[in-house]
Amino acid sequence: MNLLLMMYCSVSIFGQNSTLSDSSNISGNNAYQFSYKKLIIPAAFIGYGVLSLTTRDLKELNNSTQYEIKEHQPVHTKLDNYTQYAPAAMVYGLNAFGIKGKHNFKDRTIILGTSMLFTSALVLPAKHLIQEERPDGSNKLSFPSGHSATAFATAQFMFREYKDDNFWLSLAGYPLAAFTGVYRIINDKHWVGDVVAGAGVGILSTEMAYWVYPRVSKWLTFKDNQHTLIMPQYQSKQLGLCYFKIF
After folding, report:
1. Model pTM?
2. For the chain, which end, N or C, has fewer CB atoms within 10 Å of the first or last residue's CB respectively?
3. Buried b (16+ CB within 10 A) or exposed e, 28-62
4. Distances, alpha carbon 40 to alpha carbons 44, 63, 98, 167, 182, in Å
């Protein structure tokens, strides 16, 4: 894996007005407050994944699931390479069609970029430290599932953006995230524990992004109202950075 590849994208974007972009309204907003309750689900998922590495029964579940999949020989697909980003794309698409979420373009892009940064910072080192072999034997970067982490990070992002004004719509990203995780298993790229742990990492990353958003927003705000955003990008086993300038 080439970790040195750097990809730079320079984009000029004109932000929309939003009450949440005002620092006076951000301070004290419950949307950005740390809560131990929000750690329960991601901690449970990550804990399950970690236990699946060493616990005999969970390792057996990993193996038996792969055995059943191979026995039924389902059709493989590469859609999971794209559905991991679908919830985030839906947020931007819905906003473009007038179904507004919690934040304007600039603010939600900062949050999403921060979430992807946390996801990469948690997933990539873990893969290289744990060195779990993939079911297909292609390499030892199976745990946790990066696709699942990205998929559930973007699904959680969609949930957070729409849960207050349109709760049922906010849930639409989770089926896509689940599809991504299931097909990582069906495509013989991950064990069940890898996918569950990845889901936990993704949810946690987005929650962390919302918690740190008020501080990150201040760091990225300059007197001339120009904002700089650096987002990680992982494509074809290469890690890069995308550089945005937002006005």
Report:
1. 0.81
2. C
3. eeebbeeeeebeeebeebbebbbebbeeeebeeeb
4. 6, 27, 34, 20, 22
